[in-house]
Design brief:
It is globular, with a radius of gyration of 18 Å. The longest helix has 16 residues. By secondary structure, the protein is α/β, with parallel strands linked by helices. It has a single domain, classed as Rossmann fold. Helix 3 runs parallel beside helix 5. Helices cover about 30% and strands about 25% of the residues. The protein has a six-stranded mixed β-sheet, with helices on both faces.
Length: about 270
């Protein structure tokens, strides 16, 4: 069983420190001889108010882990909680409402609507839900992300970095319990990527948000408080206070260090998620 637990190990009185957690989380694709085990009985706690990065080789299960924690993908076995709410077994309607109200998402593709202004894209999820944004909080997010003079622009009038900042503001606007970012700098040049990572760091430090980011970039991971390393669908290591150099060195060891009882995954390249 793979494990990355911290606050919950100290007792139930600190359960409010956990933004999300999984126990025995297993995800399999296919059946019979073609089964691919993307996640293999993972135990993990995501600490509230921290920036956690998830890394690993292609096919290690990192995006699958994020999707299962976010309720975007159904689990094959095990349990997942957002705060004190168990999301495994929720009906689709309940799960949709939970994701809308309590989780923010950032993706490599910015997913902005081209016909809407930046301001309209930022508040779109709340508009769909029929909720008014907290004006004071929204102003703080806009100022933190430096979007004041871009609010009336449509996506085509924005640079890639500016578009991702709008996507970041949209993820933050409803003040979610947890923000999931899947390769958020993947389509950006190095300068714009650093800006977005800086904004995510500020969201944690200045706005008390909780961020989980899947990335393949050691430099990006160095902005986090903790890196979880996945291999063969298991958490094989973790690194607090990472540096880009230390992360890169750890990634180099994946070819030489494997769990002795790790299942053979001959069709890992067919796994839908990385």
């Amino acid at each position: 069983m793979s494990t990355a637990k911290t606050a919950s190990d100290t007792g139930p009185d600190q359960a409010d420190q956990i933004a999300a957690r999984a126990r025995g989380l297993t995800k399999a694709y296919g059946s019979g001889e073609t089964t691919v085990l993307a996640l293999d009985s993972v135990d993990v706690d995501i600490i509230r108010g921290r920036f956690t990065a998830v890394m690993g080789p292609s096919g290690s299960g990192k995006s699958t882990l994020m999707h299962c924690l976010a309720g975007l993908d159904a689990v094959s076995a095990g349990q997942v909680w957002l705060g004190s709410t168990e999301i495994t077994g929720l009906r689709d309607k309940e799960l949709t409402r939970l994701r809308r109200d309590r989780i923010g998402f950032m993706f490599q593709a910015f997913n902005l609507l081209p016909t809407l202004t930046a301001a309209e894209n930022i508040t779109l999820p709340m508009d769909i839900a029929g909720r008014k944004p907290d004006a004071e909080w929204l102003e703080r997010v806009i100022e933190t992300l430096g979007l004041r003079d871009r609010l009336r622009h449509r996506p085509a009038q924005l640079s890639g970095g500016q578009q991702q900042r709008v996507a970041c503001a949209r993820a933050l606007a409803s003040r979610p319990e947890l923000i999931f970012a899947d390769e958020p700098t993947g389509n950006l040049d190095s300068r714009a990527g650093l800006e977005v990572l800086g904004f995510l760091r500020e969201a944690v430090d200045e706005l008390a948000q909780t961020v989980v980011m899947v990335t393949h970039d050691p430099g990006a991971a160095a902005h986090s408080d903790l890196v979880l390393f996945l291999g063969d669908g298991r958490i094989v290591d973790e690194m607090p206070d990472p540096t880009a150099e230390a992360v890169l060195e750890r990634l180099k060891r994946f070819d030489t260090i494997r769990l002795p009882d790790a299942p053979r995954r001959t069709q890992a390249h067919e796994t839908p998620e990385s």
